[in-house]
Structure formats: C-alpha cells, structure tokens
Amino acid sequence: KAKEGGRNTIRFFDIAVQYAIEINARLQVALHGGIARNEFRLFCQAQVGRDKEVTGGEILLRWRHANGDWISPAQFIPLAEETGSIHEIGHWVLLKTCETLVEWSNDPKLSPLTLSVNVSARQFIKPDFSQRLLQMLVITGVNPARLKLELTESIFAIKDPNIVSHMQSLCAQGIVFALDDFGTGYSSLSYLKCLPFQQLKIDQSFVQGVPEDSDSCAIVQAILSMGHSLGMEVIAEGVETEAQHQFLLMHGCKAFQGFHFARPQALPDFCAMRHDQLSHPC
Ligand code: C2E
Ligand code: MG
Ligand code: MG
Ligand code: MG
C-alpha cells in the first residue's frame, strides 16, 4: 500500500512539473511580441540619500499578460533569457529609459535624478550590446551620466575577455555601473578591482536581517567598509524598517532603496509624486 502511495506521489509530482513546464512554455510564447502589443510598463522605485532626498530611481519592468494578469519580472525575465527575447525587451527598456531622461532634462524637478536599469548578463554579453547602446545615446541625446546599468555577479561567471572593454567604453561616455544583489552570487573580490563598478548594492537578504541577526549586521558592515574603502558608492536595497535605516546610517551608508522610503510606482506616478512633494514641502 505504501508503494502505491509512493507511486501516486510520483505521478502527482510528474503532473505538477508537467503543468509548470506547460505554463512556462505558454508564457514564453506570449512574451514574444509583447512589446508590439504594448504589454510592458516601466515602474520606478525611488533611491534616496542620507536626508531621504530622492536622488534617482531604479527602473523595474512589469508585464501585463494578455489575460490581464500582471506578471513579475522574477518570473518572466528568466524565460526571456532562455528564448532570447531578453535582447528585444532589454533594448526597449533602455530606449524608454533614455527617452524618459531626455524628457526630464527640461524639468528642474526631475533633471537632477539618475535612472538605473537592470541588464541581464545574457543581454550584456551579446557582442553588439555596447555598440547599440552607444548609438542609442547619440540618437536620443541623453546625458549618459544620468544612466546607471545594474549587473549582477552572474557576469563574473562568464569568461569573456570583452566584458571589461565593453564596460570601459560605456564608462568612457559617462555611464555608471552598479553591482546588484552584491554578496549573493559569484563574489570574487578580485573582479571589483578589474571591472569598473562605481556602485555596490547590498542585497536585500542581508538588509532584512539587520539589526537583529548578528551575521547580517557583520556582512552589511563589511560591505559598507570595503565598498567605501574602494571608493565606491554603497546603496542598501530592500530597506523596510526604520530600525534597518538607523543601523545603516550609523554604519556610514549614504544611499538607500526600499519600501520604507517608496514602493515601485508606474513612471507617470513617480513623476507626479516628485512634483507634488517639491511644490508642497511638509
Ligand atoms: P532587483 O534588481 O534586485 O530589484 C529589486 C527588487 O526588490 C524589485 O523586485 C523590487 O520591487 C523589490 N523591492 C524593492 N524594495 C523592497 C523592499 O523593501 N522589500 C522587498 N521585499 N522587496 C523590495 P521586482 O520589481 O519584482 O524585480 C525583481 C527582479 O527582476 C529585479 O531584482 C531584477 O533582477 C529583475 N528585473 C526587473 N526589471 C528588469 C529589467 O528591466 N531587465 C532585467 N534584465 N531584469 C529586470
Ligand atoms: Mg536591480
Ligand atoms: Mg537587487
Ligand atoms: Mg534581485
């Protein structure tokens, strides 16, 4: 009888896996052409400085599936990477971000802000990525110093000698690189020395443990002190509570992002909020 139960369990598991595979396959098909069908939206989450002043934002992509559901990038970005749609989608995100920065450049309340864009390792290592981005800078006329690119440590796992030179040619134009989710991936500290990252983003999993968990506290302090010693800006992501904020301030953190300050908002709402806050200071 136990055997039978075991077999049923296996069958149930197979069906569940099969079901998940089918859903992913359908989503992959649906992703294709999503841009043409206008299914993507840019959201933006504020990044703030020591006095909670907004210094910029991170662009976070949202996908509205044809059936009306909003699907998280944590779910569809890996699928887009598998099928290669990431190149088209990523290009669109960068283009919309550059266009947004150009629009903002005439607006004194928005023009000082920077925008960070997440770029998949897959997307970045495509040989024509940097060339196309450099063209985009010229075509849109964006000030490259307002644009940050977030890469994760997964870029270090790729043994491609062109990565450094691609990063350097973009840096030469003024683009800033941020190392996202720092501490969770292939952290080889030697890469921090040879790749031109100007910003480290402390992963939210470490921030979440502060100030209760002593290991998280030690890791956060170590990242802050190492990053600052290397002359990098260190930003804490996933800050949700005042206690986390205070701990970070006390240990010299100068840049913050998280629900404690602002949720990701649709881009027009982000802009409207900037105008409201600045015209009615409280
Ligand atoms: P990420 O770049 O590390 O972005 C931070 C994620 O944490 C976002 O999730 C954001 O909504 C969430 N977050 C922000 N503050 C808090 C907080 O205080 N608490 C908690 N629990 N979460 C917070 P989201 O928007 O679902 O994005 C997930 C991931 O998807 C991103 O992680 C990024 O790796 C990827 N992604 C998003 N947009 C794009 C894109 O345009 N291109 C690529 N390649 N990847 C993207
Ligand atoms: Mg990011
Ligand atoms: Mg992150
Ligand atoms: Mg992440």
UniProtKB/TrEMBL annotation:
<feature type="domain" description="EAL">
    <location>
        <begin position="24"/>
        <end position="278"/>
    </location>
</feature>
<protein>
    <submittedName>
        <fullName>EAL domain-containing protein</fullName>
    </submittedName>
</protein>
